[in-house]
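seq as requested:
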Amino acid sequence: MILLTRKAEFSSAHFYWNPDWSEEENVRVFGKCANRQGHGHNYTLEVTVAGEIEPVSGFVIDLKLLKEIMEREVVSVYDHRHLNFEVPEFAEMIPTTENIALAIWRRLVGKIENGRLHRVRVYEMPDLFVDFYGEGA
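struct tokens:
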């Protein structure tokens, strides 16, 4: 089995807010990230696909196809958007880096032919990232 990883980048705004909590509790738990105006990040996404090398092409997956899937399913939906207001999955889910990785997994799983989605890694900053290996991992 080979693990192949492709990167993409997107810029998005978000804020952290739990509607079941008071404003004071949100500020206590989330600090500056509870500012309802939001703040932005330049995210880096890594998608890792597991599979066998196809003997004719020498690829696990067609890299152009993987790039197109990532662009269609994630980058075009998240890039230059306010996640809380413009991306459907975050209407009810706080767009933490953990939840962003989960949402991206759900957008990609089952859409990659000739390979199996192995990992989604989302960098919020160079020193902060989340790995997600699937619902039952």
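The first helix runs from residue 23 to 30.
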